[in-house]
Amino acid sequence: MRFDQRRTLIVEEANAIGTAYLRLDVLPAAARDELRASFRAYVDARLDVYRALPDLGAATAHLARAGALQQEIWTQAVRVSLESPPAPMLLLPAINAMIDIAATRTMAAQTHPPTVIFGLLFGLALLSALLAGMAMAADRRRNWVHMIIFAATLAGAVYVIVDLEYPRFGLIRVDAFDRVLVDLRRSMQ
To answer: Is the predicted pLDDT of residue 84 greater than 90, yes or no?
Structure first.
C-alpha cells in the first residue's frame, strides 16, 4: 500500500471514531457514559498498537486488546440501541465504520509486495553495479567521485523504496499522523 494511502487511513480512522463518539449523544446518559469510557479505552489501545512498534509481540497484544474493546463497544451499543429506538439507525453504522477502518489499517500494515519484487529490486541494483563496474574497468583511470556517487545513489534509491514500504521502522515515518488520533483522544475528556 502506498505511503500516502497509509496516512489517509490514519485520518479516516480518526474521523470514523470521532463520528461514532459524537453519535453517542443519541443515547440515554447512563449508557452514553459507559460507552464513552469504552471509546476512550479503545483509542488508547489503538494508539498503543502503533507506539509499541517495532516490538511486534507487544503490538499484537495491544491489537488483541483493541479487538476485545471493539467487541465490547459493539455489544454495549446493540444492547443500548434496542432500548432507544432512533439510536440504532445513527449509532450502529458509525461503530461499524469504525471497526471496518481499523481492520483496513491493520491489513494495510501487514500487506507488502511479494518477496520476488524486493529480490528483483536488489538484483537490478547488483546488475547495474556490475555493468557500471565493467564500463569503468575499461578506463585505466579510476574516478573515485563517480564511483562513490553511483554507489550512494543506487543504495539510497533502494533504501528509500524499502523504507516507504515500512513507514513505522525507518527514516520515512507516518508517526506524525498519529497526532490526529492523539488529538481525538484528548477531545474525548
So the answer is: no
